[in-house]
Structures are given as structure tokens and as C-alpha cells.
Automatic annotation (TrEMBL):
InterPro entries: Ferritin-like, Ferritin-like_SF, tRNA-Hydrxlase_MiaE. GO terms for molecular function: tRNA 2-(methylsulfanyl)-N(6)-isopentenyladenosine(37) hydroxylase activity. This is tRNA-(Ms[2]io[6]A)-hydroxylase. One of its GO terms (biological process) is tRNA modification. It holds the Pfam family MiaE. Coiled coil: none annotated. Gene3D superfamilies: 1.20.1260.10. It comes from Flavobacterium agrisoli.
Length: 193
């Protein structure tokens, strides 16, 4: 369904389990960044009523996820650490086209967002199926479903709002690029790391 070409090695979960505090901190900041991304898209595209309406829902959901992760952090007696850089997302960001029209920029930003949600969804699935902690397994299963919905929302809006860009062709380029970089990740106790 997600179209990703390279799956995360389930052994990544062994790395995650070695430092639950780190994965939860990283995850919390990922949710904050996802909410900020939705709000930024609203700010830049306020004239697109359907997009604004749906992104308000996504922003709220991402903040709820942040709250859920923070609650888990407190329950497990660990600390919410400082914000981490997300090197995976930074590499994806560099792939976004910087030239073209305002519409072209919107479409690429939506595809960028869809890609992050797709990989997050895939990682949450791997966690839900392989982590020893039953509470975390259920938590990541529930979030996987939400991320899948966000992925399809961003992709569908790219299809809806495109003016010149062949979205299917550009999405394939995004998939190919993501495939070329993802093999560098899956070695750290972070959602994308």
C-alpha cells in the first residue's frame, strides 16, 4: 500500500529496545514537527479550504500523538530529552524542488509530507510487530493506522491540486530517492534513524 521499496529490517527493534527513552524522545519531537508542518502548510495555502480543513485535523492529531508519547515518557519514568535533528527528513527536504511555481512548491511539499508519513507508518508497523513491550506494541499499532491515513491525505491532495506536475511520475521519483537513502538508516534508536 505504501509503495516503499525497501522495508526496515526487524532487527532495528533490538536497537530501539536498548534505549526506549531515546526512541520516545525522538518520536515526541517527530510528532511536534509533523504538527508544525501541517500548520505551515495551512499558513502558506490558506485559500485552499479543503486542504486547510483537513490539515487542521492532522495538526490536532499530531499534537494528540505528542501528548500520548509524552504521557508514555512520564509513565515509564524517563525524561523528554532535547529535540534531535532528523537527518532522514533533512535529506528528503533537499530533494524538494526549489524552482517552479507556487503550485509546484505545494505539490512537492505535499509529496515530501506523504513520504515522511509513509516511512513513519512502516516503522510503526515494524515496532508494533516486533517490540517486546505489549503496551508499546499496541501504541505503535494504533499510530500506524493514523499515519497511513495522513500519508493518503497528503498524496490525495497533491493529486487534487496539481496544475502541471504529473503527480504519479513525481511520486515515483520520491520513492526512488527515498530508496536510495533509506539504506543509510535503521541503525539508531530513532524513528527514522
Amino acid at each position: 500500500m505504501l509503495g516503499l521499496k525497501l522495508a526496515t529490517d526487524p532487527r532495528w527493534v533490538n536497537i530501539v529496545e536498548s534505549n526506549i527513552e531515546e526512541i520516545l524522545t525522538d518520536h515526541a519531537w517527530c510528532e511536534q514537527k509533523a504538527a508544525s508542518n501541517a500548520i505551515s502548510l495551512i499558513t502558506q495555502n490558506s485559500e485552499k479550504e479543503a486542504l486547510v480543513t483537513e490539515l487542521l485535523v492532522i495538526a490536532r492529531e499530531e499534537l494528540e500523538h505528542l501528548q500520548m508519547v509524552h504521557d508514555l515518557i512520564k509513565k515509564k519514568g524517563v525524561q523528554l530529552g532535547r529535540e534531535r535533528k532528523d537527518h532522514y527528513v533533512n535529506e528528503l527536504f533537499k530533494f524538494m524542488k526549489k524552482d517552479g511555481s507556487r503550485n509546484d512548491a505545494l505539490i512537492d511539499r505535499l509529496l515530501f509530507s506523504a513520504m515522511i508519513e509513509a516511512r513513519s507508518c512502516e516503522r510503526f508497523k515494524v515496532l508494533s510487530e516486533n517490540i517486546e513491550d505489549p503496551e508499546l506494541a499496541k501504541f505503535y499499532r494504533d499510530l500506524m493506522i493514523s499515519e497511513a491515513g495522513h500519508y493518503t491525505t497528503f498524496l490525495n491532495f497533491a493529486r487534487k491540486y496539481t496544475e502541471k506536475i504529473d503527480v504519479e511520475k513525481r511520486w515515483k521519483e520520491w520513492i526512488d530517492f527515498e530508496t536510495s537513502i533509506i539504506s543509510n538508516y535503521g541503525k539508531q534508536e530513532t524513528i527514522h534513524g
